[in-house]
Amino acid sequence: MRLPQIFHSLHKRLQRMFEKSHEGGDSATPSIQDIAGRLAEEQQRLRQQEATAMPKERTVLILGSKCVGKTTVINKFFDREEHTTRPTLALEYSYARRIGNGKTPQVMNVWELGSLENADQLLEVPMRTHGLHQFAVLIMLDLSQPQRFWTDLECAYKGLKDTAQQMMESLSPELREIVEQRTLERLGQQSKEDLGNQEPLPFPVVIVGGKYDVFAGLDPAVKKHTCRCLRSMAHLIGGALLFYSQRVPKLAKVLKDTICHLGFGSPAQPFRSYTTDFNEPLSIWFGTDSWSKIGDTGAQSVERIGAAFGVEVPQLQLEKRKIQETTDPAKDPGFKESLIDEMRAQKNEELTGIMRDVLMRGKFESVQN
């Protein structure tokens, strides 16, 4: 509803309210304070009604390990042909639009974070642009390297948690209450006993274990401890957990349906099964796990989960990964632009000629002296 329509509706409502008061024998003209108070109450009611209604716009942020296939997942979702995938440098934005059941257009904003290093300010962009009210996150991790992914998971969680806390403080009390209520509903009935031992984020988070086709061939002990670690982390933050591989069509379809659910609200239940066996691809929906199901260690914290996992699957000391960079970024084959490249080549030739002339002039002057 547009603003002029809202104000017109408010005016009509207030007018009917005052007419009823006159019919009841109250002939006193309402004061400006009365009108302002009633108008504020009506605006608050409309805001709450709008917040609980079917959303017309949602936002999905995808972040996680490098080279795990985040861009590929987005391209597959949008049915884009994937010839050569360029590395995501910072933040990339896409959007999808469809007509819902009520014949109203729905928009899904999709953000991809290229790197977790020094990404605190970048995380704020999609949150502050679209708000927390209809926000969801996919954290994609590289299961083929269980000795490395914990750093990515911990970094992603802490970045999201810190930014979300700042955003929650700036929300109005009404919206904050709605976000908190939805978080409790997402945790479900089965995990009510664990509520005091969880640190849920105020928006849906799905931890996606990528490259499952490689992970399936690892040592059973490594798979067992990796699955326990990811289940513990997903349960702690009130999230869901899904294993994925683009080479397994069934898993790729579930992930695509999950993105559609987070962005458009359908299908209502994208996870077709509930799987906790570490010998199978895990599939655990929101609020369906518990500390007692995960193991006999009881409630966990981020620090305890990381420490326990590090003992069973020693984590490599992650030096800063050396990215294969060309000496001249302009020659990077992933960012070719024919017109710009031709102009730059021409300027390089002119610069080479100038340098040659300067060098010859210098030699000539040195001979004369």
Automatic annotation (TrEMBL):
It comes from the Eukaryota. It is found in: Cytoplasm, Cytoskeleton, Cilium axoneme; Cytoplasm, Cytoskeleton, Cilium basal body; Cytoplasm, Cytoskeleton, Microtubule organizing center, Centrosome. The gene is Dana\GF22735. The keyword Translocase does not apply. This is Cytoplasmic dynein 2 light intermediate chain 1. GO terms for molecular function: dynein heavy chain binding. GO terms for biological process: intraciliary retrograde transport; intraciliary transport involved in cilium assembly. Pfam families: DLIC (PF05783). Belongs to the dynein light intermediate chain family. Coiled coil: none annotated. The keyword Transit peptide does not apply. SUPFAM superfamilies: P-loop containing nucleoside triphosphate hydrolases. Signal peptide: none annotated. GO terms for cellular component: axoneme; centrosome; ciliary basal body; cytoplasmic dynein complex; microtubule. Keywords: Cell projection, Cilium, Cilium biogenesis/degradation, Cytoplasm, Cytoskeleton, Developmental protein, Dynein, Microtubule, Motor protein.
